[in-house]
Structures are given as C-alpha cells and as structure tokens.
Amino acid sequence: MRTFARGGLVFDVRDEGPQDGVPVVLLHGFPQDSTAWDAVVPQLHEVGFRTLAPNQRGYSPRARPSSVASYRTRETAEDVIALLDAAKVEKAHVVGHNWGGAVAWAVASEWPDRVLTLTSVSTPHPAAMRSVMLSSTQAFKSWYMGLFQIPRVSEFLFSPGGPAWQAVTSGLPTHQAHHYSQRMESPGALSAALNWYRVLPREMLIPSMKVGEILAPTLFVWGDQDPSFGRAATQKTAEFVTGKYLFTILPGVGHWVPETAPELLAQAVLAHIQRTEI
Fold this sequence. Notes:
- This protein has helices spanning 41-46, 73-86, 99-110, 126-132, 138-141, 143-147, 153-157, 165-169, 174-184, 189-198, 200-205, 231-236, 257-260, 262-277, and strands at 3-6, 9-16, 23-27, 50-54, 92-97, 115-121, 218-223, 245-250.
- By secondary structure, it is an alpha/beta fold.
- It has an eight-stranded mixed β-sheet, with helices on both faces.
- Helix 2 (73-86) packs across helix 3 (99-110).
- The two termini are 31 Å apart.
C-alpha cells in the first residue's frame, strides 16, 4: 500500500516489512516526514514487524488543506484510524515523535481498542503539558509556538534558508536536514506544517476531542537534552496513564531521537512490545 484516502485527501504511506507481521504505525512530526524512521524500521522488520509510516496531514502533497481548522486533533487522529482501516489492520502498535507523539496520545485515548501499545517519543501527554506550562520552564521552551501563530511573518522567518530555519533543523544529521528543507520548499508545505501549531489556540478554548487517560501499555522515551520539552512535563505524564507505563530517559540525546538515536529507540520499542506479550 502506497496511499490511503480520507475525506477527499490522499495520504502517502510507506508500507514495508513482512506483510503478515504485526503492524507498527510510525508517526512523524515537524518538519519531518516518514523518512524520519529510516534508521528505525530495519530493526523492526528484522524481527518480523510490518511498518506503516505515513506522511501526515499537510506533509502529503495531496493531503494539504489550507484551513487551520483542518488540523484539529480529531482530524489528525482520525487520519490514523483511516490508515488502519485502509491497511485492514484491527490493532497496531503506535509510535509517534514530536507532533506524531501528540497524535499517538489522542489515538490511544479515543480508540483504545485499536492500539496494542503506545510509544511517545519526546512528546509528553497533552494534559501534562498544560498542567506544567506556567509552573515550570515549559512555557519558555515553547516560545516558538507563539511565533508560529503569526501568518507570513513566521513563513518568512522559518522558511528554508530564512533567518530562523537553522534553529528548526539544529541537531539533525546533515542529510536529513537537507531533505526536510527541500520538502518545506514545496508550495504550501510550510504553511500547512505551521497549521499544526496555529490550531492550538482553538484546541485550548474548544477541544475537538479530549485526550484523557491512556489504557494501553505505554512507553515514553525522552532525551534529556531536548530543548523543546522539559523534565516537568515528562515526569507529570505518568499521572495520565492507567495502563502499564515505562519512562525511558536517553542521556545526552536531544529532540531528534529517531534520526540521532535510532538503535536505542528501536531497542526500547521492541523491548516494550515484548514486555506486553509476556
């Protein structure tokens, strides 16, 4: 399967590994695409897992709506359910990084019967983020989210080659940073990616869905050098998981865990899955 459709949008997806293997859904964030998992998937395939790595809403050229409302949490989460349905998958292990982690939390909360295990990489539970935003350094770490709200200004500052683009890709391997930069140069790509952030004020005022307690066995992986997510929100996340929970800290690792620590991440995911099968 190379594509799947939902609501008139067509998403690109990399469906790889043994087709009869248990599926692992891999969800990327900003400004990534499915190639963020390139160094992770071989290790999953080696032990028999099938991987489904979509280019999410805004990142697939034929799934790039222009309205901010199109990027609400329910929309991005239902995209994952559409992927599972298209792949004829009843249940899957769900792994997400950055915004993909936020989507993974939402899917596991709303559709627990479709999720075998949940792994969020870097991204704390949304409720944990809200609860510590003003009582920790998290608001300072999230400064860029406010700047992303300003149309045209943020497109100028954060466009590839723009004054602040290097800050976006800082810490990424050179080839990956170059690839993501090329992707963001496509017409409408950067604005679509920023819409994930621009919808946040609406979600805070009138949530499109409640991301509540998580029943699925959950692994949260966090690099202790992550400049975007602080320790307070990561530690608070445990309060929102009622299923089995493991918090794994990767010393010396920054935000780009799939690209910079793929072996450690794959090992952690596989160990997590194996623990739940015992």
